[in-house]
């Protein structure tokens, strides 16, 4: 049976075109891009082509892009650079719903004596911009707020956020890992200083990401060593993955509009289908401002890991914010910050689609899901008896 | 990724004894929806013989919680109440061919539901949570429960206790309290051992006692600093060990070895000499 892969916010399949673009660099073109000979030089040129392709995706200049190994490295680099570039300033602003790459970096800095403001979100996962404005002080080194949330898909008003932060002359970084390739990004319009994007969330291979650093931004490298990436990120380049990332950015740019709409149609079909057929569902997060590919639905009185394992029997891949799937005993920090009741967090399931998702797959999930929920509710001491609510 | 045995998967997909018995003689409810798992056990009990004639469960929780519920009900059916209470969470885990360590709390929940049901039947504080003081506020775990699980499952680290009871797995605010309980339980245990009159040990007994002392007294202390110890050989009164983890190459390793020797002299015999491999 084919895999029905609806976990594209975790990672995506490598596009055929991307794989083709990568293969020569895993094969005959193995030179080191830093070498002086022509053999290495041609590899260097490919990296520059990829840099242009990735820059084009977000309307940046090629020299504003550095390649890194993953979204987490991009986030860490941006934050550490901002802090090192603002000596004496000891305050960081972020949100409670960031990816761990930002959240845990900030917690680590808090242990080092930095003051960190974790902005709350409302039930829809939205920020209060007045609170952001009030939080910024002369001591603030950097504001880091994600573009779109990986769990709920909620898109923050990053333009308004950037305007507020820049009006106070503070560095602004946005983690756009989940947004890139799914919605149009334009750093000429958006006045962020830095932006993280990642390859494997947009059909490139794992092990490559990028950080946009606006020209003129003070920068301090995170990985220190050789002169690669113009001295801004040391380490021999992951050439094949970078070449593939370039191709993936190209594909995303070309198809963003039509694919976005197609994916959104399928997402809405899935969401509506499940809301119509499963008992006590609720959609988590602001349905208006959301990534077109993501839906996060809670099924009350059943536990997420159990749902996923049942779906796994049908080769359906999704993810959950339940405690049992988090690797710790704590359920999703994102859903908790949004005030989703525990009864619903434990039974939350995130479906995230891609351009490869088909209508048949969506209908297959709509068919398989209701009996899964029904059976698990019959097992649950809460499900059958509404008096227990 | 799920690292469940085929038995766990099978009993999750095809649970046995799911539901509620009609007119139950005993009901045991543990856990809560807030914690992420809950179990309601209903029993039919023969009043003459105190034998469990039927047992059914309703469980909210992950695959291992549901499979543990089946295991528990299968294990207790046909047993008398006293026999049933002799079952431990480890028996439940064994029935399933083992559980991932971080899921052991599911087997503990199975045992607790049984205890609650029996207490309910006997008219002792129905559906009461453990006695004792709450240590972990996030999951409402008491010191009594932590102590029992440490003893029954021979646990030595906070991580283990979190795996078995969830305590410490939330905000982490109680981790130092759990460490204190661990120290307390193990020092009690060792004192119990130590007050035993010293007698002449056979070689086998001596090796066993050395091993036990290392396990109970020494290893937890080393592991607390990310070190570890392995017993390599015992030759007469020469105990040959190997230090692992951060102990390797530690500047204080000599002191550590001296302390290990002191402990073994105290608890095994005066003649012990510890050597590093």
Folded structure, characterized:
The complex is a heterodimer of chains A (389) and B (277). Chain A is 40% helix and 14% strand. Chain A is built from 12 helices and 13 strands. In chain A, the strands form 3 sheets. In chain A, strands 2-8-7-6-5-3-4 form a 7-stranded mixed sheet, with helices on both faces. Chain A has a 4-stranded antiparallel sheet with strand order 9-10-13-12, covered by helices on one side. In chain A, strand 5, helix 6 (158-167) and strand 6 (171-175) form a beta-alpha-beta unit. The radius of gyration of chain A is 22 Å and the shape is globular. The relative contact order of chain A is 0.16. Chain B folds into 3 domains: 6-121, Sufe protein. Chain: A; 134-194, Arc Repressor Mutant, subunit A (Orthogonal Bundle), CATH 1.10.10.1100; 203-276, 2-Layer Sandwich (GMP Synthetase, Chain A, domain 3), CATH 3.30.300. Chain B is 46% helix and 19% strand. Chain B has 10 helices and 8 strands. Chain B has helices at 6-13, 63-76, 81-85, 89-95, 104-121, 143-153, 158-165, 175-194, 203-224, 253-267; strands at 26-32, 37-46, 51-60, 134-136, 141-142, 227-235, 238-245, 273-276. In chain B, helix 2 crosses helix 4 (89-95), helix 5 (104-121) packs across helix 7 (158-165) and helix 6 crosses helix 8. Chain B is elongated and about 65 Å long. Chain B starts with 5 loop residues before the first helix and ends with a strand. The A-B interface holds A 301-303, 305-306, 309-310, 312-313, 322-324, 328-331, 342-343, 346, 378-384 and B 2, 9, 12-13, 15, 18-19, 29, 33-34, 36-40, 58-63, 65-66, 139, 162, 166, 169-170.
């Amino acid at each position: 049976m084919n895999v029905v892969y609806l976990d594209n916010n975790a990672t995506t399949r490598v596009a055929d075109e991307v794989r083709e673009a990568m293969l020569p660099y895993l094969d005959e073109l193995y030179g080191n891009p830093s070498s002086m000979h022509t053999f290495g030089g041609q590899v260097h040129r490919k990296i520059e082509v990829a840099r242009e392709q990735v820059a084009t995706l977000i309307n940046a200049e090629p020299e504003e892009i550095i390649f890194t190994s993953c979204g987490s490295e991009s986030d860490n680099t941006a934050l550490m650079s901002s802090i090192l570039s603002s000596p004496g300033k000891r305050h960081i602003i972020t949100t409670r719903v960031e990816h761990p790459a930002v959240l845990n970096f900030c917690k680590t800095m808090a242990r080092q004596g930095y003051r960190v403001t974790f902005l709350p979100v409302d039930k829809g996962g939205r920020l209060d911009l007045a609170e952001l404005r009030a939080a910024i002080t002369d001591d603030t080194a950097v504001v880091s707020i994600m573009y779109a949330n990986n769990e709920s898909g909620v898109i923050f008003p990053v333009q308004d956020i950037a305007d507020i932060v820049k009006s106070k002359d503070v560095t602004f970084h946005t983690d756009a890992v989940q947004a890139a390739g799914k919605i149009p990004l334009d750093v000429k319009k958006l006045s962020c200083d830095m932006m993280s994007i990642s390859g494997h969330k947009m059909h490139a291979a794992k092990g490559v990401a990028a950080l946009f650093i606006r020209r003129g931004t003070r920068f301090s490298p995170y990985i220190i060593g050789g002169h690669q990436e113009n001295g801004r990120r040391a380490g021999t380049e992951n050439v094949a993955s970078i070449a593939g990332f370039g191709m993936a950015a190209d594909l995303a740019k070309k198809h963003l509009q039509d694919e976005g709409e197609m994916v959104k149609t399928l997402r809405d079909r899935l969401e509506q289908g499940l809301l119509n057929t499963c008992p006590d569902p609720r959609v988590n997060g602001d349905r208006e401002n959301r990534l077109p590919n993501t839906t996060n639905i809670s099924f009350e009185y059943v536990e997420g890991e159990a749902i996923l394992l049942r779906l796994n029997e049908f080769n359906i891949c999704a993810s959950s914010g339940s405690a049992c799937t988090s690797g710790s005993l704590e359920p999703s920090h994102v859903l908790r910050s949004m005030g989703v009741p525990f009864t619903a967090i434990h039974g939350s399931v995130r479906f995230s689609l891609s351009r490869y998702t088909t209508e048949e797959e969506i209908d297959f999930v709509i068919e398989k899901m209701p009996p899964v929920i029904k059976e698990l509710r019959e097992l649950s001491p809460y499900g059958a008896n509404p008096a227990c609510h | 990724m799920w690292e469940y045995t085929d038995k766990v998967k099978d009993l999750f997909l095809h649970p046995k004894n799911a539901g509620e018995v009609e007119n139950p003689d005993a009901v045991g409810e543990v856990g809560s929806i807030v914690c992420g798992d809950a179990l309601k056990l209903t029993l039919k009990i023969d009043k003459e013989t105190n034998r469990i004639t039927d047992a059914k469960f309703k469980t909210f929780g992950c695959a291992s919680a549901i499979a543990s519920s089946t295991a528990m009900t299968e294990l207790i059916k046909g047993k008398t109440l006293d026999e049933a209470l002799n079952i431990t969470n480890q028996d439940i885990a064994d029935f399933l061919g083992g559980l991932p360590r971080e899921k052991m709390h599911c087997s503990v929940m199975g045992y607790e539901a049984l205890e609650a049901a029996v207490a309910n039947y006997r008219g002792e504080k129905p559906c009461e949570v453990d006695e004792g003081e709450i240590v972990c506020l996030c999951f409402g775990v008491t010191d009594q429960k932590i102590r029992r699980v440490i003893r029954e499952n021979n646990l030595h680290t906070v991580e283990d206790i979190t795996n078995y009871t969830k305590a410490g797995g939330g905000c982490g605010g109680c981790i130092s309290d759990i460490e204190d309980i661990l120290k307390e339980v193990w020092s009690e245990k060792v004192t119990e051992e130590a007050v035993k009159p010293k007698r002449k040990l056979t070689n086998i007994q001596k090796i066993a006692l050395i091993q036990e002392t290392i396990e109970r007294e020494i290893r937890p202390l080393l592991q607390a600093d990310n070190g570890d110890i392995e017993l390599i050989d015992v030759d007469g009164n020469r105990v040959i060990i190997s230090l692992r983890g951060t102990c390797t190459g530690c500047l204080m390793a000599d002191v550590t070895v001296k302390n290990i020797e002191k402990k073994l002299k105290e608890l095994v015999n005066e003649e012990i000499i510890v050597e590093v491999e």
